[in-house]
């Protein structure tokens, strides 16, 4: 019960941020979409993997952005692009050793992605299975005004090369089965579907079940 109340309070604190970023109409639509499923939720996922054996080519974005690894000192840059609860989770990711690549345009944060070799189910929302040599893509985002500029693919390539240089063998991503755009993009950059999973939450009880597993 405490977890559900905390989630509701966090979402309430996010409201002002979302409305400020997206305006009243779009902000309220997003708030309703996120708050209503809190007590009961079911999501079907596909689990995808990309081998890190081939050379990684980093594409050049269409605008001059700086892409680099973030540090905890960069958390203030997320204020205009992420919500209260997201920033709090990102601070926790840093303490747990997760890595984050950020894209800056004129010193403004316009995109970022997270990854880790040790999955924390509370942070990721699911007990994702990793084999030795696997790393997991936690979250990726590009600001709406900068989408279509090649920023996301460039961030992804930097992330892949980072783990490749550290001798990891695969990157693992879970994607909502209904997110066709993400699934198409994943296939284009070499991800293959290896598994299916179902996430269910009823009040404070959660269950994440793999339908089959192909290591």
Topology:
Blueprint: H1 2-35, E1 40-51, E2 66-69, H2 84-95, E3 99-105, E4 108-116, H3 121-124, E5 134-142, H4 151-165, E6 170-176, H5 180-188, E7 192-202, E8 205-212
Parallel strand pairs: 5-6
Antiparallel strand pairs: 1-6, 1-7, 2-3, 3-4, 4-5, 7-8
Please tell me about this protein's structure:
With 215 residues, this protein is of the alpha+beta class. It folds into two domains: 1-38; 40-212, Gcn5-related N-acetyltransferase (GNAT) (Aminopeptidase, 3-Layer(aba) Sandwich). It contains five helices and eight strands; from the N terminus they run αββαββαβαβαββ. The chain has helices spanning 2-35, 84-95, 121-124, 151-165, 180-188; strands at 40-51, 66-69, 99-105, 108-116, 134-142, 170-176, 192-202, 205-212. The N and C termini lie far apart (35 Å).
């Amino acid at each position: 019960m405490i977890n559900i109340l905390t989630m509701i309070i966090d979402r309430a604190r996010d409201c002002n941020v979302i409305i400020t970023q997206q305006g009243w109409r779009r902000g309220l639509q997003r708030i309703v979409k996120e708050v209503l499923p809190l007590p009961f939720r079911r999501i079907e996922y596909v689990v995808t993997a990309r081998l890190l054996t081939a050379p990684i080519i980093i594409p050049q974005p269409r605008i001059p952005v700086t892409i680099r690894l973030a540090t905890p000192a960069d958390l203030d840059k997320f204020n205009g692009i992420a919500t209260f609860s997201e920033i709090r989770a990102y601070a926790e990711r840093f303490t747990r050793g997760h890595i984050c690549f950020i894209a800056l345009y004129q010193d403004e944060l316009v995109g970022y992605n997270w990854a880790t070799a040790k999955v924390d189910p509370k942070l990721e929302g699911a007990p994702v299975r990793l084999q030795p040599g696997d790393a997991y893509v936690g979250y990726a985002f590009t600001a709406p005004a900068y989408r279509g500029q090649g920023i996301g693919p460039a961030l992804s390539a930097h992330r892949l090369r980072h783990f490749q240089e550290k001798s990891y063998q695969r990157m693992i991503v879970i994607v909502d089965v209904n997110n066709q755009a993400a699934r198409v993009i994943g296939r284009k950059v070499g991800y293959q579907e290896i598994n299916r999973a179902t996430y269910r939450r009823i009040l404070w009880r959660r269950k994440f079940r793999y339908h089959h597993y192909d290591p």
